[in-house]
Amino acid sequence: MKKYTTEFPGRLMHSFSLPVLIASLFLLFSCAKDEAEPENDFPEIKKGEGVFIVNEGNFQWGNSSLSFYHRESNTMYNGLFKKANGEDLGDIFQSMHIHQDHAYLVLNNSGKIEVIDPESCLRTGTISGLVSPRYFLPVNDQEAYVSDLYGNHLAIVDLEKQEVSGEIPINGWSEALLLAGNKVLATGMESGYVYVIDPANHSLTDSIHAGPGPSAMVKDKNGHVWVLCGGMYDVEEEPLLLQLDVESLEVLQTIALPGDQTLYSRLSVSPDGKTLYFSGQGIYAFSINGSSPEPEILISPEGQVFYGLKADPHTGEIFVSDAVDFVQKGKVMRYTPEGSLIDHMEAMIIPGDFIFY
Fold first, then answer.
1. Which DSSP string do the residues of 267-318 spell out, in sequence order?
2. I need a surface site. Which of 18, 71, 242, 335 has the fewest CB within 10 A?
3. How far is CA 146 from CA 18, 121, 151, 178, 239, in A?
4. Cβ distance 289 to 254 under 8 Å?
5. CA atoms of 299 and 90, how far apart (whole Å)
6. Is-same-fold flag (48-127+306-357; 170-300)?
7. How far apart are CA 278 and CA 33, in angstroms?
8. Please, what sign has the CA dihedral across residues 221, 267, 308, 337?
């Protein structure tokens, strides 16, 4: 396996310890087994007609699952991987990425990626040899990167062979991945940095100190990158939003986030690239045009445990999940861009992400 350089000019890397956060995550996901999945029919899945839901499942119970919401029929279909393949998906379904004719299902605690046909959900391969994978990003037609909780590196995946072909050392826990121009950006949850990688030679070329717990990134209508530094349990730095110029790597704006000891997550962007959404003490909205000096609560939780969040790139509707008590089946709600509830439906255990197909 190839290892690539970690040398780069300029800024130094720094790391924080995360014992409290890791212990909290373990407590969060160690719960009881789920009841049997509903026996609804398998959907007809076609591009532009629905949304995949990543149901994380409980830590070490192996009860993660894949759901699909069909827009026209307003129907939720659960347990698709198991129905298609006759076996459980794995332990902690962290994320999913659709590229060309394949869907890549990242199983964090199982240390693998299941590759399926997105319309039949039949397995077409399995990528193993990963430590604790988080997110998957194709960087060209032949290769993809995978971030990792414990691996201290980004894994390089050969897409044709469906196997790990190398690694790029990263300081600690790597999280979000974003392709921006000819660069790949990777957030370091522990270090507080955004790392800059040249995918042409898999070299780490630079880094930018962002803030505490950089966990998510999106591009706005101007092509600038926004980084959500949502805070850490054992770090005193205040959470913030950071705007970066991709070409110069200059920090254009730093927006302090409201709330005392609030942790933020799940950054998303509206279809027109003008409004950012993220989760904290409710669902926040922030206009990049500066109509408001700070983010404002768009949707109040009202007793719900907001967990997953993403704006539909086709309709602009905001999909939000409620993890309930992290033991029972979760819920998925649809809101208008103005924050009005459209409807809600039942998913499976800990719905955490949405992939629009």
1. EEE-TTS-EEEEEESEEEEEETT-SSSS-EEEE--TT--EEEEEE-TTT--E
2. 71
3. 21, 21, 10, 11, 25
4. no
5. 33
6. yes
7. 30
8. negative
Domain range annotation of the chain: 48-127+306-357, 170-300
Write down the H helix ranges in the chain.
19-29, 80-85
Instruction: Report yes or no: 312 and 318 within 8 Å, Cβ to Cβ.
Output: yes
pLDDT of residue 233: 84
Whose tokens are 């069909």? That residue is: 70
Q: For the segment 261-277, what is each residue's pLDDT rounded down to a tens digit?
A: 789 999 999 999 999 99
| Alpha-carbon gap, residue 123 to 117, rounded angstroms | 7
Give me 165's structure tokens.
Answer: 């072909």
Nearest to 214 by CA among 225, 230, 226: 230
Which of the following CATH numbers is that of domain 48-127+306-357: 2.130.10.10, 3.30.70.260, 1.20.1330.10, 3.40.50.410?
2.130.10.10
**Whole-number Å distance between alpha carbons of 186 and 215:** 9
Q: Tokens representing 150?
A: 């414990």
Is the pTM of the predicted complex or chain greater than 0.70?
A: yes
- Whether 313 and 299 have beta carbons less than 8 Å apart is answered as no
Measured in degrees and rounded to the nearest 5, phi and psi for residue 142 equal: -110, -20
CA 330 – CA 308 distance, rounded (Å) = 10
CATH 2.130.10.10 given to domain 170-300: yes
- Which tokens go with 189? 């949850």
Residues 6+ apart with CB under 8 A from 40: 75, 77, 78
